[in-house]
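User: I'm preparing a small set of examples for a lab meeting where we compare how different chains pack in three dimensions. I only have the primary sequence for this one, and I'd like the structure in token form so I can line it up with the others. Please keep the answer compact; I'll paste it straight into my notes.
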Amino acid sequence: MNINLVKEEISKKMNSKVIVSVFGLRNRVTRYEGIIYKIYPNLFTVLINGEEKSFTYGDLITGDVKLKYL
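Assistant: Understood. Below is the structure token output for the 70-residue chain.
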């Protein structure tokens, strides 16, 4: 997967509802539901209950974070 393709896909889905799954230590998975809010050169933010959480494009490539579009 190419980082430019990931950036392009996320920019097309700006302001879309998503479920973000964050895979952490010891097989913990945290899920958030929010809206893709802002896009920057190295990361993007998701607005979750009025709070911004940021994720890098590299997180998506490595599989540490997964997005599901609603």
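A couple of notes for your slides: The two ends are 22 Å apart (CA to CA). Residues 3-69 form a domain with the SH3 type barrels. fold (CATH 2.30.30.100).

User: Perfect, thanks.
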